[in-house]
Amino acid sequence: MAQRPVVAVVCDVIYPYSRGGRELRNQELLPRLADRADAHVYTMQWWDGPPERRADGVSYHAICRLHPLYRHGRRSIRQAAWFALASLRLLRCRFDVLEADQIPYAQLFVLRLVATLKRKPFTVTWHEVWSRAYWREYLGLAGWAAWALERLAMRLPDTIIAASPQTAERLREVLGASAPITTVPNGIDLAAIRAAYPDADPADLVVVGRLIEHKRVGMVLDVLARLHAQGLHTTCRVIGEGPERAALEQQAQALGIAPWVEFRADVGEQKELYALLKSARLFVSLSVREGFGMAVLEAVACGLPVLTTSAPDNHAQYLVRDYSRGTVCDPGLDTVTAAVAGLLAGPDAPAPGTEGPADSWLASYDWPAVAEKLAGVYAQ
After folding, report:
1. 190-362 — its CATH code?
2. Which of 111, 155, 164, 287 has the fewest beta carbons under 10 Å from its own?
3. The whole model's pTM is what?
4. CATH code of the domain made up of 6-184
């Protein structure tokens, strides 16, 4: 039997200390590859105790102390710099494959040096490609430099793993059609979703995601206020945590809808999330930027009607377009409000496990199927 390759995965965030698509991706995929790869995750020290720990067949190594991810609602440049510098520690580590997460970019330059000096293949998982206009909106004048840095970073890996076909397409627009890019999408646990039953506490709308500006949870609250003004006393559950939490709570108070909005930052397990999703009537995602949209895919698998928008950088819309109960609308407030009102007036979601054959495409996103694709990349 061939020896398992040692795969070093460098990512500044890990589940469950930080919750997002890329954290959940590693949490689900790496243990499933334990019989074919010896996975070592190099990250910040999110946990108490020794800098090394092991769980579910995966080894975790803290290469620096925990630095805050956000500063004034934006990703911290200081955190990115410290993590990049700490990545030099991989020069002392043994591995056969070096894999890194795209975010926050700075570490990719250090890891390219590490891979070159150790003569090992360098793979980067790329979740989304930002446009020059979006970088400018995000960082102002500094956005021009960040845009150029992102384009340069794309040229560093030996292989890029794109988390969606749309991200792969955008990468090829920059790197050319022959660029070494493989699509390995994010996934879902279909068995766990189908086994989940709705929570006893229902809600009309449900929103899931990190509470940051581009997710536009504030617009969901504006929609809710408009519905209330029309006499439709709709409830909303917001599941997630992030730097916008306090501002969103204040917005709900100012709009006079606080009694009808529940903020849930305490959802600790996926099965609890699935139960809360299935207890809602409509899943809403108004994010202007999604490299994939894992929460959207989970809502689809739960059988919920799903509403998202046609914002150009929202790749979750392509998942919704394939869904028999999905709606994609213009991102304007008037259009979204009308769409939400219309969907809430329609029939409720089917019972768990009764998704129709039109949505059989979900099987390709089941985590075991995704793990097979990733194993193929490691075997190359």
Report:
1. 3.40.50.2000
2. 155
3. 0.87
4. 3.40.50.2000
